[in-house]
Amino acid sequence: MNARGHLSSETIDLLMLSALxxxxxxxxxxxxxxxxxxxxxxRELNEDxxxxxxxxxxxxxxxxxxxxxxxxxxDRLRIFGPWKVLxxxxxxxxxxxxxxxxxxxxxxxxxxxxxxxxxxxxxKTAQQDIGLKGDARIALEVVAQRxxxxxxxxxxxxxxxxxxxxRFVVNPGSAKYLLIGSRDGSGAFTVYHPFGGDKSTAxxxxxxxxxxxxxxxxxAGTEKLVAVFSNEPVDAKALKQAVxxxxxxxxLGDAKVISLDFVKAVK
Length: 267
Fold this sequence. Notes:
Shape: globular
Distance between the termini: 46 Å
Number of strands: 11
Largest sheet: 6 strands, mixed
Structural class: alpha+beta
Number of domains: 2
């Protein structure tokens, strides 16, 4: 377990590799069944494993095999001995098999056979190469909670009321930091995530719900939510200036900015 009561990355990786003893494996599976966060991580890891097996491993093994076998397997066996000839192939296959357990892709997406695989831990991703603005995985979902009426999604133009609570579900893709701000109907600017903060905060990878909720005040009018996904921390003052300068489409350098307008109406 980590400090937040979830399975550690090491435990999940070992479970994927069937490297836990029976007691630890059963405990980990029981936790996954009961914990939505860990269940999502487990599902994403299995999806990554399937992508690796389908796209990466066949091509890697074929290339290594062709290099080892050419020009003549029998000549190499005769000259160098069996281990020096077959050793690289065995090592590559073993490394690929271990890699299946440590692949980690950022959230949902599609992968074709001709694309570069982007998920190995510690490597620069293809999405980073094209910039955050081109990262289609980055997403923001706003969910409102109204007493006695339950939850409902907040879309552009949705009408909310004072006292409604809103939560955020995000997928940062390859972004490392997130800042969410709001300009209400009176023009006041407030940082919603990290609440009351002065700059972006580091964001976990994959699709997940941000902790906490924001309760809407009694200021009526159109409210603009703006989420900034970036690779470097963004100052809240810079975001406010971007919203004031270009309310319809705020821009902040290479960061990906997602905005959503809703109406806050008094009953």
